[in-house]
Amino acid sequence: MQEKYIDETKQGEAFAIAEKSGNSKKLFLESYGCQMNFSDSEIVASILNEQGYNTTLKQEEADLILLNTCSIREKAEQTVRMRLAQFKNLKKEKPNLTVGVLGCMAERLKTKFLDEEQLVDLVVGPDAYRDLPNLLKETDDGRDAINVILSKEETYADINPVRLGGNGVTAFVTITRGCDNMCTFCVVPFTRGRERSRDPHSIIEECLDLWNNGYKEITLLGQNVDSYLWYGGGPKKDFAKASEMQKLTAVNFAQLMEMVATAVPNMRIRFSTSNPQDMSLDVFRVMAKHNNICKYVHLPVQSGSDRILDLMNRQHTRQEYLDLIRKAKEIVPDISFSQDMIIGFCTETEEDHQDTLSLMREVEYDYGYMFAYSERPGTPAHKKMEDDIPADVKQRRLAEVIALQGELSKKRMASYVGRVHEILIEGVSKKNKNQWKGRNSQNAVCVFDMKEGQKIGDLVSVFVHGNTQGTLLGETVL
């Protein structure tokens, strides 16, 4: 399933944590792509912190450089390859420098990466991070090291992630790994393996720990959080083989949400990413019941055409998707939605394209993540379908989708004007150092003038008096 993506046009993001006394080696860790990769980087930093590595923001002082990569689109892989090229001179200056590639790109290319990128010493897939200490010993002995074995069990539930950078207010909590939804365009099932869920008690413990350390908002994270199903461990696909007791005591996503909301009643809770076919109305009922669960869902649709949805193997129809949206709005009247949309998928016609535009108008998304179709090697679409939509047609259709989403976003932002919203202060506005920025329950960004006594992490009441296409403008209610 396609995830919610951080802007991959950026070079990547490097983070550092407080130094651990006694550590003598330096790790430069850069993450690309989805939120799962950024969360995984925190696990990697935790593992290596125990192996003598403190993180650094300066690549020139690093003993170990790791890139946590994304493989969902061709552009993401190109960005990583260009970044690796920038390290060649550094490696000449520091012959003992170790360079490694982690994540989905490592999983997809495997040993091919060592042949293609001569400066890469280490290739590690998403399920093999515990093996990093052993792999680094191999590189110390002058050998290339690789572990891309996918696991049916690994959830890293017992590893307490270090929080890399960030604002000290919001954090990711991973609840599932892998994906069983074989969308024909998507490489994730092949790079992250089968769906498996994390022990709910370890999730609660992590949430409580975050609250006790001053965090005010968590995002429950997974390739497909709606598929969360804990029955004692193992892949979701094996649930049919579980014992009667395991089935009776199993915890699904709605139940997990109830548990988390109750355990940390003053913590804001979000979740991402969702899949329409697996979304239960019980999730919306729990959302309506608990004020601390934010009234926002990222619900990828990918296309408004039934024919294209079938080719994508999306397991839901246009009408089923619209019915789900309608019922959700009945249960949670102030809910907001965002979308993922793939434009120009194989054989897409103008009629298919118009179906997408009409669905967007009917749903009225707050915002979206929209991309022209990019053929990914190894996926069913790559093997069985022709990428037959000309680039100029893709770009024209994409521009139309983006323009429409812009109109819808402005309309949705305007609907929040004239009301008081509870805003969590996340930081200082990039455009005005005298203003705070934060988000309301519906995930809309709001900026407002600073007031004496306010600080990052405060929940404040803000009257929204105006808006732009993507931002609310407000003032604190005294």
Automatic annotation (TrEMBL):
Pfam families: Radical_SAM (PF04055), TRAM (PF01938), UPF0004 (PF00919). [4Fe-4S] cluster 1 binds at C34, C70, C104. One of its GO terms (molecular function) is metal ion binding. It is an enzyme of class 2 (transferase). Keywords: 4Fe-4S, Cytoplasm, Iron, Iron-sulfur, Metal-binding, S-adenosyl-L-methionine, Transferase, tRNA processing. Residues 165-411 form the Radical SAM core domain. InterPro entries: Elp3/MiaA/NifB-like_rSAM, Methylthiotransferase, Methylthiotransferase_CS, Methylthiotransferase_N, Methylthiotransferase_N_sf, MiaB_methiolase, rSAM, rSAM_horseshoe. It comes from the Bacteria. The keyword Lipid biosynthesis does not apply. Residues 25-141 form the MTTase N-terminal domain. Catalyzes the methylthiolation of N6-(dimethylallyl)adenosine (i(6)A), leading to the formation of 2-methylthio-N6-(dimethylallyl)adenosine (ms(2)i(6)A) at position 37 in tRNAs that read codons beginning with uridine. Monomer. This is tRNA-2-methylthio-N(6)-dimethylallyladenosine synthase. It comes from Epilithonimonas vandammei. The lineage of its organism: Bacteria, Pseudomonadati, Bacteroidota, Flavobacteriia, Flavobacteriales. The gene is miaB.
